[in-house]
Here is the input.
Amino acid sequence: MIERELKLHVPTHARADIIKRLRSAKARRISLHARYYDTPERELANSGIALRMRKEGRRWMQTVKAPGPDPVSRLELNHLRPDGNLDLALYDNTSIQAALNTLSSPLSLRYETKVVRLQYEYHVDNTTIEIAFDEGALFAGELELPICEVEFELVEGSPTTLFEVAKQWTLDFGLMLDPRSKAERGDTLASLALSVQTTETGETIVTSVSRPNNHHLFKPCRAKPPKLTNKLTPASAYLKCAHECLTQIAQNAAYTAGIDTARANSSTHMEYVHQLRVGIRRLKSCQKLFGEWAPELPEDALEKISNTFNQLGARRDLDVVRTVIAPRLKLAGMPDIRMPRVGANRTAPASLTSSPSFQNALLDVLETLVIFGDTLQVEAQSENAAQKQGGNPLPKHLDAWLRAIVKKGGKFTSLPIEEQHNVRKDVKRLRYCLEMCSGVLDKNLLAKLRPALEQAQEDLGELNDYYTAETLFHDIAQKQPQAWFAIGWLKAMQTQKQKDAESHFRLLKKAPRLAGKK
Here is the structure.
């Protein structure tokens, strides 16, 4: 069966109020102790599969979960068991059997969860939703991570109502979307629980790690291009890309808000913010590329996401000036000046990403994607879908973008600053979409395009940083005249970077067409 569920993190300050609401609803209390199994090579996890044996009160339940059609849906198979021993024969003649048959190593216990659950069924508008508050911990070796989350599972009825309920709870309690399941968090924890070293004599030493280092444990969520094929319709390809972009946004927003990352260092937190902003850019790029096949995303949600993007960007710009540009200026001989303070509230990014309005904007977008996926008609012969539509249209669209960029870039040094900014955005959008669609593009062509595009984006990014820094130092120079040194140096660097970027555009002009020759 397909399980459809939303999982939201509960901040510490909301715990008591949630318990109060659940007790007033006569929620029942259940003790859950689950053991998760995998091979040492993490073969199940690599396939997105989670296999567990869970004691629910006095009974044992064996469960396997596998990826579903969207991030909130999973294939779930449950079997009551007389004891806590696994029985893999239960998956004979199921879609899980093939994955189990190809395992190269025996299954073993990888990590555990111990949770106290408060659970009840909520009925509204012909829809039944199981609401469960889980509080406990994940355990792997000597390590542990806290669990404090609410799950909203659609038992029957409307997915729209499921989202409406989750969004209301988010407003009431400040809940936060976290795309990771307990299994994903547990697998990451288990990977750190034992450090394996090999001596010169070939002896294997297994060392327990005493405490999790979140700097290494939860790294920023980077783009993972979806696996597209020419068998997919453009609408189906869009959904894969959009869901992946939203996952990058939501995961880095959760990390920025401090979920599992309280001990991560400042540079890692800066990277969470950076990757969050990359995810937002990628989602916008995805919408533009697939425009004629994609649904319109909620305008209010996009506006809130864009506002958050801009606020995080302003903070990032100041961080870059202070940590990157200012040291370069110092080496170039700039006199000492007083840099403006960043501000006392160092938790501003966490406040932005944990706000109920931003979190509900993410849920609004996710809801639109899920409902759109539900309405897509499944084609009987998907392998003929592209031919029925006259071939894959994506290379033609991307090639048109590339030619437009090359045309503007050929005269880059003479463009107004605003137009240069637009070219930079166009280059980013093209790169993101080329990577998203890499599965349906010629690999040799991509290999030729990537170096010039990467260099162009890098130079354009530095150029933008120099423009931003110049604006800041103009303000500083009003009271500290020695800052005019910085302005002169920055203008010289801008001229050089403009020339560097234009040279990369000349190389791109020679690139073969992504859509083939006319």
About this structure: Residues 454 and 485 are 31 Å apart (CA to CA). Confidence is low (pLDDT under 50) at residues 196-215, 378-387.
